[in-house]
């Protein structure tokens, strides 16, 4: 009997990965390709959707080829993605009308401030669970409809894009929708991604007409919203296409919800933190949409076919892993693996604090005009101090969110499951445990984002029977417990708030 597997497309901020998992949840194939980061102006971040699609095809065929797995051995494919990144494309040609606007993009900061002046922040938060912020898709889609170049669509009239959107001939999507569309030909998203658009009412589970009107976004251009794990599937790959097989696409989750699912946080109170470009701390709150009073987001965690939506509280930290990349960009390190050794080479930061607010501050501070700041430097400051302060900033930002999470949920966190590239750094994991005063648990399979998408798809087609089977698969690699004296940790953290204050409100021109 031929072995069968489930595949997952993990389309992230810096690259695209395809992973294949077996019944035990173990990785049997893995391929990755980076894509270009495009910065047309300060504070603007774009991706080329066609490059992303070409890379998606490439990593799928590469992973299968390297592992000698035939596409007919895939029982299903799941998709996970950088969530709020937004694009529009022409339904006739299938071509994007503009580069995708990345979740980090700040070009619509002024529009958000206009919403604040109009008193719409409260209604938006109540309907969507989100803070009004340029991070989310609504203002990005609005900008694209107003500014996309009609020449790229082979159209001549500037108003043609809006007209065609009204007829559903220009389509809106986050990257999951773009990948699913290209894989199956169907225009679909899942509830978790819809909940990140600032257009979707998470209580009514539908696109919100008042918000669509506010942003002048036609309902006709929006994708159908389906469960994250869908027994009816989203469609199948074309047997005449690049894969040369008909494989069901049956699951989709925004990357952070996928990690929650992959970490098997199926019960209320269970939490995970993913350390990627940014860090995203989610706690399952069950079928209750808990409204935050401490600067967190209320979001949809996941939904299985025929079951109620599961909600989550989320703390979105915009820059953590990207701060390590910045150290490399600035030639302070040659390789991210150096950071642990450099940080250990000094006993402290000598009072240096790095606030990596390169794209503003997310939860729980929410300051679009904050910018990256280094404070406390003296003539004796060396790169080792800056590197250590950068790692500490990741731990401090996580504590900010952890304290808000405990205040909102009323649950004292005893342990935190972690995943993502940065958790390979043992120094960071130990530091994180010390600063938040909780156990840190790292799983054997740390690519839990892809695993969560695979689980969602595999459950939908019966590859895995139930959630108990997935929990049985989950295994601990290492646990980190607090080693630092509480008073010392609190003293370190106490100056962090002062450093945050120094970074606030710096950008004064369109978020630049």
From TrEMBL:
Q: Which reaction does it catalyse?
A: glycerol + ATP = sn-glycerol 3-phosphate + ADP + H(+)
Q: Its pathway?
A: Polyol metabolism; glycerol degradation via glycerol kinase pathway; sn-glycerol 3-phosphate from glycerol: step 1/1
Positions of the Carbohydrate kinase FGGY N-terminal domain? 5-262
Ranges in a coiled coil: none
Chain's gene name: glpK
Per UniProt, glycerol binds at: 83-84, 135, 255-256
Instruction: Cite the SUPFAM superfamilies for this sequence.
Output: Actin-like ATPase domain
Its protein name is Glycerol kinase
């Amino acid at each position: 009997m031929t072995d069968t597997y489930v595949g997952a497309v993990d389309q992230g901020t810096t690259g695209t990965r395809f992973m294949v998992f077996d019944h035990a949840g173990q990785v049997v194939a893995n391929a990755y390709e980076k894509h270009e980061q495009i910065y047309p102006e300060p504070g603007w971040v774009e991706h080329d959707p066609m490059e992303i699609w070409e890379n998606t095809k490439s990593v799928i065929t590469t992973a299968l080829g390297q592992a000698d797995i035939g596409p007919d051995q895939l029982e299903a494919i799941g998709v996970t993605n950088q969530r709020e990144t937004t694009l529009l494309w022409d339904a006739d040609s299938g071509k994007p009308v503009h580069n995708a606007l990345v979740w980090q993009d700040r070009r619509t900061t002024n529009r958000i401030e206009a919403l604040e002046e109009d008193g719409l922040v409260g209604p938006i938060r109540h309907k969507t669970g989100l803070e009004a912020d340029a991070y989310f898709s609504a203002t990005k889609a609005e900008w694209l409809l107003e500014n996309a170049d009609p020449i790229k669509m082979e159209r001549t009239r500037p108003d043609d894009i809006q007209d065609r959107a009204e007829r559903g001939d220009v389509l809106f999507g986050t990257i999951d929708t773009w990948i699913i569309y290209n894989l199956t030909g169907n225009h679909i998203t899942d509830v978790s991604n819809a909940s990140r658009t600032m257009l979707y009412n998470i209580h009514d589970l539908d696109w919100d007409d008042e918000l669509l009107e506010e942003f002048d976004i036609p309902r006709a251009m929006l994708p159908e919203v389906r469960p994250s794990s869908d027994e009816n599937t989203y469609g199948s790959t074309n047997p005449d296409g690049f894969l040369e097989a008909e494989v069901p696409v049956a699951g989709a989750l925004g990357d952070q919800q996928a990690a929650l699912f992959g970490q098997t946080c199926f019960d209320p109170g269970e939490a995970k933190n993913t350390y990627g470009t940014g860090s995203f701390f989610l706690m399952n709150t069950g079928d209750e949409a808990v409204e935050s009073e401490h600067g967190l987001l209320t979001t949809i965690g996941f939904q299985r076919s025929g079951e109620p939506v599961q909600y989550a509280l989320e703390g979105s930290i915009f820059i953590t892993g990207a701060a390590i990349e910045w150290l490399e960009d600035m030639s302070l390190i040659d390789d991210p693996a150096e950071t642990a050794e450099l940080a250990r080479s000094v006993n402290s930061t000598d009072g240096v604090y790095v606030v990596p607010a390169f794209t503003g501050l997310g939860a729980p501070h929410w300051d679009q005009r904050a910018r990256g700041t280094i404070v406390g430097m003296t003539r004796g400051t060396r790169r080792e101090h800056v590197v250590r302060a950068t790692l500490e900033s990741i731990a401090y930002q996580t504590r900010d969110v952890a304290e808000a999470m405990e205040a909102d949920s009323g649950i004292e966190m005893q342990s935190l499951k972690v995943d993502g590239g940065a958790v390979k750094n043992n120094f960071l994991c130990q530091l994180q445990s010390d600063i938040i005063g909780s156990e840190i648990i790292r799983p054997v399979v740390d690519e839990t984002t892809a695993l969560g998408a695979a689980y969602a798809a595999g459950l939908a087609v019966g590859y895995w029977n139930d959630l108990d089977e997935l929990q049985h698969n989950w295994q601990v690699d290492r646990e980190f417990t607090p080693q630092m004296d509480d008073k010392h940790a609190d003293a370190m953290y106490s100056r962090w708030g002062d450093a945050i204050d120094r970074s606030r409100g710096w950008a004064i021109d369109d978020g630049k």
